[in-house]
Amino acid sequence: MDSLNRHEDYGQEALEEGHLLDDPIAQFQSWLIDAEAAKIYEPNAFVLGTVGTDDQPRSRTVLLKGVDNRGFFFASNFLSRKGEALEHNNKVSGVFGWYSMYRQVLIQGVAEKVGPSESDEYHASRPHDSQVAAWSSNQSSPIASRQALDAQFDQALERFADKDVPRPEFWGGYRIIPSRIEFWKGRSNRMHDRIEYLRTLSPDGSHSAWVIQRLQP
Ligand SMILES: Cc1cc2nc3c(=O)[nH]c(=O)nc-3n(C[C@H](O)[C@H](O)[C@H](O)COP(=O)(O)O)c2cc1C
C-alpha cells in the first residue's frame, strides 16, 4: 500500500482573493467547467453528508444535476436513509473532491425538496431504464438477494413497457441552499489556500450578503 506513504506536491498554482468571483455560485460553476475540461471522471459527483434520526452523521455520493443562484440540485429516493435523515434534520454538507486538480469545494447549508413540477421535469429528462429503476428499488431497505432485486426491476420493466414512466411520488429532487462554500486549493508545503464564502440563512428564505474570508490551512 504505497499510497499510505506518498507525499504529493500539490503545486504552486495560487487561489487569490483578487482572482475569485464575488458570487460563489459563479465561482463554483467556473471550477466545475474546469473539472469537466480536465476530464475528471464524474466531475459532478459529490459526497453528501446528513444527520440521521439517531443524530449519527452519514455520507454518500450523489450526482449534482443543477446549480444556479437557488442552490445545488440533486435527486434521490425520498424514503431512503438520506430521505429519512433530511426529514429529521435538513442541515447538510457536501464535498466535491477534484483531487487530481488539487482542488476541493465544501458546501454547507439546508436541503429542501423541490416542488413536484421540478421533480417531474427532471424525472422526464432521464433515460427510460433510470426511470424504471426509480420504481424498482426501495432504496436503502434490505433485500433477500440480487435475484429478488433483478425480479423487481424486470416486473417494473414489464409494467412500463412501451409506456411513459410517471415519476414515483417517493422519488424526486432536493436543492441545497448554501450558507457556506469553501474553495480549497492544494499548495506545496501543505500551506494550502482556503477561501470561504459565508452568509446567514433565515427561516423565511431571506439571506445576508456573502462575506469572504481566508482560512488557515
Ligand atoms: C458516482 C455515484 C453517483 C451516485 N449518484 C446518486 C444520486 O444521484 N442519487 C442517489 O440517490 N444515489 C446516488 N448514488 C448512490 C448513493 O451513494 C447511495 O448508495 C444511495 O443514494 C443510498 O444512500 P442512503 O442509503 O444513504 O440514502 C451514487 C453513487 C455513486 C458512487
UniProtKB/TrEMBL annotation:
Q: Which organism is it from?
A: freshwater metagenome
Cofactor needs: FMN
- Record-annotated Pyridoxine 5'-phosphate oxidase dimerisation C-terminal domain positions: 171-217
Q: Which PANTHER family match?
A: PYRIDOXINE-5'-PHOSPHATE OXIDASE (PTHR10851:SF0), PYRIDOXINE-5-PHOSPHATE OXIDASE (PTHR10851)
Output the SUPFAM superfamilies linked to this UniProt entry: FMN-binding split barrel
UniProt keywords (A-Z) are:
Flavoprotein, FMN, Oxidoreductase
Report the InterPro entries cross-referenced here: Pyridox_Oxase, Pyridox_Oxase_N, Pyridoxamine_oxidase_dimer_C, Split_barrel_FMN-bd
Q: What is this protein called?
A: Unannotated protein
Q: Name one GO molecular function term.
A: pyridoxamine phosphate oxidase activity
Start and end of every Pyridoxamine 5'-phosphate oxidase N-terminal domain?
37-156
A single Pfam family it belongs to is: PNP_phzG_C
GO-annotated biological processes: pyridoxine biosynthetic process
Check the record and name the Gene3D superfamilies matching this protein: Electron Transport, Fmn-binding Protein, Chain A
Query: HAMAP family from the xrefs?
Result: PdxH
